Amino acid sequence: MPIRAVFYLAIVVLLFSGNLLVGKLATASLPPLTLALGRMVVVFLAVLVCFGHAAWRQRQVLLQQIKALAAMSITGMALFTALLYSALRSSDPTNVAVLESLTPAATALVMALFFRERLGAIKWLGVLLSVVGAAWVVADGAPLEILCRLQVGDVLVAGAIASWVLYSLAARQWLSRIPFYASLVPMTGIAVLFLAPLALIENAVVETTWQFDGAVIAAILYLGIGPSLIALICYNRALLLVGPSRTATSLNLLPVVTMVLGYLLMGAPVTLNQIVGALMVIFGVSLVTLNIGRRARV
Q1: Range of the domain at 290
Q2: 198 class by beta-carbon count within 10 Å (0-12 exposed, 13-18 middle, 19+ buried)
Q3: Mean pLDDT, the chain, as a whole number?
Q4: Number of compact structural domains in the chain
């Protein structure tokens, strides 16, 4: 793998891991929907500065695809972020990272069940291993007791995964017709408009206390610029260098990096069951994304 691709992917994994760790800390000071809105406002302002001119030049194309942009924005930006931060308020970042890593396997499963996309025996094995690994983490080593040990945070992460799967299906249908970087301006704007009333309701209905200090502002800036913008650009650069399979597979390191950084920076405990479950998920998702069976037939 080219050294530049390794560099880009290392940045992506570190920033995505930081999203979970910083998000966990920030949800102690801000309600999760308010945090998601703050992050999205920062993203919107950043992409407006970077790609606003391109969006204006291609406004006719973007207006023609406004329904598609809205669908991708609401599922992939607004709901995914809101559900993930809501999960972090009650769940351990490592558990969230392990469950979030299920996303490629969940997408492949939906494509197989509802769109008749053939997976093959190796990919089915990968899906099964991923599910068992996630269940192992959620149920703390007793996967058959998962329903008894399921937490609210686990359900919220499942909702975030479902939202991302819907985004992936929408992107598969429409993204090739849309100028990608220019589309980030209306998509982030729509996400802000979607999250704003939800954040207002959250603060009006739920009793919450804000702690809006310099640390929280720094966290929102990091969440908006790091995982959202810099990671996106680095991911796309790596995609051009090594292709989608190897790029997606590198994200399987997210649970391990989150686990290590959580332990080193936050003193978060690491259990044997988390390690075992994470390894099963990583191996299973690798089987799903690497196209091993296809290579063997070439």
Answers
A1: 3-297
A2: middle
A3: 86
A4: 1
